[in-house]
Amino acid sequence: MKRVQGAVPGRGGRRRAVVAAGPFLVVCLVLARVWTAVSGRLPDPLATHFGAAGRADGFTSVQGFVTTSLALLLLFGAVVGFFVQLRPDAPEAPWVIAGGYTLATVWGYAVCVTLLSNADVAEVSAVRVSPWILALSIPVALLAGALGRLLAGAAPAGPRRPRGAVSRLDLPPAETAGWSRTISSHPLFVLGGLLLGAGLAVGSLADWAGGVGLLFGAAVVLPMASVRVTVDRRGLTLAPTLLSSRCRFRRIPLDRIAEAGSRRIACFAEFGGWGYRISAGRSGFVLRSGEGMVVRLTNGKEFVVTVDDAATAAALLNTYADRARSHQGG
User: Fold this and answer.
1) How far apart are CA 317 and CA 305, in angstroms?
2) Predicted TM-score (pTM) above 0.90
3) CA distances from 283 to 2, 207, 292 (A)
4) To pair with 255 at 20 to 30 A between CA atoms, which of 20, 80, 213, 277?
5) Segment 36-45, tens digit of pLDDT
6) 142-169 pLDDT, tens per residue?
């Protein structure tokens, strides 16, 4: 397996890492200021969860709330910072930074509203938070995300190879071969872990009804974070590595394959994000931008998967597809 040394981030990469860390540092400073102003005026426990009418229906100790809030904020910041430091020039980096600005703002807003709403109350069960105050976090977070995307700048576009002629492997008719690679996404692993941790935190600190949605999100995201791509005499198979080998995301048999090729894939520009994506006339499993295999199906649609050594996989798939057609014709 070929190994490619990563590029050392230059000034642009360091600038982008600083931009990525900015919102988390600002929110930490704001939270410290709010805590200094209200720490002596808070009940214990705090009202930390509010129903649709703004009534308090979940309570947490002051120490537990503050510790968990800061820990999750630092964890979110570390995840965003790690990705941007690792791949500052990736096409996804500006959007990861924008997501970091949105996440930091939503979290900081929620913590500040909770602390300020609990200040000077005589009875914690009487704490109220207007639904409008909570709803205001959405436009504020979107504006913060737009600011983050603006400050991140544009990622350099890599060269995109045309499809051109497709290749075959020189495989003797009596021989068979197989090709397999595992593709993984660190951001999806991290996102799944964050959803799992947040779901457990919300469930234990507030109520499990609120944590179930986060836990469900973790159950959906984590299996997609690592997928094994296999090409053999049965066709193309994608299966999650974290689940049983009997579970498959997709299998495309040889009789449905017209031809396969390889080219560079821009996951956000072409598919709008990571994961299993569906758009007009094509679908794909994209966990990053970069080298990928493009399979043209007999119905005219395309299936795309981003994976290393895609040219070899496409050549083997074409060889097997040619064999299948020759057997059918004979």
Assistant:
1) 13
2) no
3) 28, 38, 13
4) 277
5) 899 888 888 8
6) 888 888 888 887 655 444 444 434 588 7
